[in-house]
Design brief:
Layout lengths: L1 E5 L6 H12 L3 E3 H11 L2 H12 L5 H12 L8 E4 L5 H13 L6 E6 L2 H9 L1 E3 L5 E3 L26 H15 L1 H8 L3 E5 L4 H12 L4
Parallel strand pairs: 1-3, 1-4, 2-3, 4-7
Antiparallel strand pairs: 5-6
The structure holds adenosine-5'-diphosphate (2 copies) and zinc ion.
One adenosine-5'-diphosphate binds next to helix 2 and helix 3.
């Protein structure tokens, strides 16, 4: 099962991907998580990426294309993958098509999670993240113990880019650079729309109905 989970920042891609990755036993590949791990480790890639991430800008395409190519060639992608946060631009999508053709794992579907802007701002401004990749929300999805990750016991933190001014910038970048991919994948016959505004479990059920077709 080869799927892209698509949607604006805060649509719930990471939240859904965690569940789907377990249920279907395929890796959850979040380019944001990979970049943040590099920032924490202080790698060359991390240092470069941080400048863009802190401003709510996209990291340059060439960096992301190299990163996703290496990741998709890892052996755990043999039975499929779930992409979250990639592609975000048309050049990234074109490069992805080339990479996937080369490794003979073309996309089954691009699942587009629709959520309105004001709801996105509420979700992102109340988000609390864990370095293991889990995310929570102070109102909508609180952890069992305040400030502590249910999955790994790690301490939750608020991302530097989850502040209102940076959130607005990220939404503007989404509209400008990423949203055109909806039409791109619709034209390719790969787009499936899901209402992302419901409860986590009802969105999950809708996505599973789609994914079950590719088992
Ligand atoms: P994305 O990966 O698309 O940026 P996340 O999965 O990190 O989004 O979710 C953004 C925030 O919204 C998090 O705080 C998360 O707990 C919360 N959230 C996710 N799905 C829902 C939902 N269906 N309803 C309410 N809040 C949600
Ligand atoms: P969210 O879903 O909340 O927007 P992500 O964790 O997916 O956040 O991404 C955080 C930041 O990492 C982005 O704002 C951007 O700077 C960078 N990033 C992640 N994926 C990409 C990508 N495919 N192309 C360019 N930049 C990316
Ligand atoms: Zn954790």
């Amino acid at each position: 099962m080869n799927v892209v989970l698509f949607g604006p920042p805060g649509a719930g891609k990471g939240t859904q991907a965690k569940e789907l990755s377990q249920k279907y036993d395929i890796p959850h590949i979040s380019t944001g998580d990979i970049l943040r791990a590099n920032v924490r480790e202080g790698t060359e890639l991390g240092l470069k990426a941080k400048e863009y991430m802190d401003k709510g800008e996209l990291v340059p395409d060439q960096v992301l294309i190299g990163l996703i190519k290496d990741r998709l060639e890892e052996p755990d992608c043999a039975n499929g993958y779930l992409l979250d946060g990639y592609p975000r631009t048309i050049p990234q999508a074109d490069a992805l098509t080339g990479i996937l053709n080369e490794i003979n794992k073309p996309l089954d579907s691009v699942i587009n999670m629709g959520v309105g802007d004001e709801e996105l701002v509420k979700r992102l401004s109340g988000r609390r993240s864990c370095k293991c990749g889990e995310s929570y929300h102070i109102m909508f999805n609180s952890p069992k113990e305040e400030g502590v990750c249910n999955a790994c016991g790690g301490q939750l933190y608020q991302r530097d880019d989850d502040r209102e001014d940076v959130i607005r910038q990220r939404l503007a970048v989404y509209n400008d650079k990423t949203k055109p991919l909806i039409e791109y994948y619709d034209n390719a016959g790969l787009l499936v729309n899901v209402d992302g505004a419901g409860l986590v479990d009802s969105v999950l059920a809708d996505i599973c109905k789609i994914m079950d077709q590719y088992k």
